[in-house]
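Write out this protein's structure.
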Amino acid sequence: MKWKLRKCPKCGNYTFQDVCPKCGTPTKVPHPPRFSPVDKYVKYRIEMKRGRPLNC
């Protein structure tokens, strides 16, 4: 599913465009990733969030 609503990380403006109309910064999807109990990458996201190096 592709999300249509996007948010500018710089000014906080919500828009449907890929670039913020106010400041010209690329927008990002404000929704969190979908939860799955069989997520293969949860270990890597937790390590990145905690600031630890990835052990491959």
